[in-house]
Amino acid sequence: MHPTTLVARRERRILSSAAPVRWLLIGVALAFLGFFLVVPLVAVFSYALQKGVGAYLAAIQEPESLAAIRLTLLAAGIAVPLNLAFGLAAAWLIARFRFRGRELLLTLIDLPFSVSPVIAGLIFVLLFGRQGWLGPWLVEHDIHIIFAVPGIVLATLFITFPFVLREVLPIMQAQGSDEEEAALSLGASGWRTFVHVTLPKVKWGVLYGVLLCNARAMGEFGAVSVVSGHVRGSTNTLPLHAEILYNEYNLAGAFAVASLLTVLALVTLAIKKYIEWRAEAP
Amino acid sequence: MSVIVEQVTKRFTATGTPAVSDVSFHAPSGAITTLLGPSGAGKSTLLRLIAGLELPDSGSVRIEGVDCTHLPVQQRGIGVVFQSYALFKHMTVRQNIAFGLETRRQPRADVEARVDEMLHLIQLEDLGKRYPSQLSGGQRQRVAFARALAIRPKLLLLDEPFGALDSRVRVELREWLQSLHERTGVTTLLVTHDQEEALEISQHVVVMSDGRVAQAGRPEDIYDRPSTPFVASFVGGTSMLRGHVRSGRAEVGSLVVASAGTAREGAEVHAFVRPHDIKIAKPAHGSTEPTTGRVERLKSVGGYVKVLLKLPTGETVSVEVPRAEFDDLGVVEGDCVQADVRMARVFLGDYAI
After folding, report:
1. Residues of B in contact with A186 (CB under 8 A)
2. What is this model's ipTM?
3. Which among A224, A270, A265 has a CA at the least distance from the CA of A45?
4. pTM exceeds 0.95, yes or no
């Protein structure tokens, strides 16, 4: 036998514990996973399809459900592109330049991750609500933000803005700027360098960030719930709509809507896996 | 003179010592000029200042008579090759080489012809469709050269271009670079900490230390006539020995050098001795020569043997003895030998004497 494989085997044996311990750990992990992930997943779809496929499709095609789908798509459709642009710009700024307040900016960018979403929603109520700082001015000019679509978009934007940045920044920092400098020395403009050199380098990180950003934008509950006002057919997103239906004991309807979000989650995971696989390939 | 750098200073922090401090030098047209120095000497920063990737705090840079001090990097007409290759990983070899030409909006046919010419120049005609990850380190670096040369730069800047390669490939590419330079004749500025590389391939060497130019000149001058203790110690693997001025002459062990008349009696002098400028001999019985040393360690390296000698003063000197000569000598570790210094550069303070 080749000596290195022998060493590798011995190391593996040292690192792996005795069989009973191994099986116990695997058993605990599987039981945990099954109870908290597989069972709920099965439950969502079985409840949703309890009254048959016809009832399921009907529940989704309710005008209020369709309105919730449209609003969810609208909020994500605005939040994701804006956060993509913001994330790329901020990652570029932080990775390439040293300036006063850079550390502070890095810390602040994580605020949406560290603050409770309900608090995030309340911030907007305090800012734009009738009694808020900008409230009187908004009332005067007949602009509705809280309990209206703009509030939902704002809350979604706030909650999701670190995703793209957090995925792209480490890649930009790890790769350095030699390629960009080479492109500049070859006569390329800053924009051409960004499009032809920087973007392809961070492509998979960007896609990954967009994917996570989108999943959160569509699934966000807390912040959106505070600013939405739960006006049926007008300010309800999919998660809010699912909750309302559930509170009205319309289990089939609630789980039908919930199943849409679950499918979104599963598709997200599948694409995530694909992106990881592609990013690792040479 | 092709590249003229005048009194360039660059600081990265407001209070710290400058990375490049009041540097002036020139690089002759059509030649390979090397910026040589230990890491942290400021040579890479100087190269980036000339490239336009950094802006100097003061001073000026002229390339082919054009004042480039405030010209953006794109307009300087330079090619840069980095230690990390910096190839565009998502582009093929051909696309990499074509990048600078396409930026200049040249007609498709011209670009293709130039890329073919460059592939021929670097002898990688068959690998145009490969991606950088499918090439060896040496091949990647050659592609980086082709990409930089494709745009017909006035000046080629090389930042430790062979630093990431193993020693055999490094020596091969060094020779390749020399022949490439003979064919293209592009004025070249090379940054390296490898003195062998500097002495072998350049016509002009600028030795840097602590952000300043320590000495500039032909490789032979740098090697044979170092003008500062730093250059003497940095180039040629020298050992330093202390000595004193005795009756108007510098004495270092058994070595006596005529010194400048101003030297104070008893003043300390430093002598820098190259490993091959010391001759080792077995002492005659009962000899008490002052430079007799003890063999601390013997290391056989290819064609010669490295001998580490400990002198009675406590100083150690490294000596290189050709293999055949060493075999005749027949010394082993622990032996006392007589060491005869054949040549040395002696400095009184910072001045050569």
Report:
1. 79, 99-100, 103, 147-148, 151
2. 0.82
3. A265
4. no
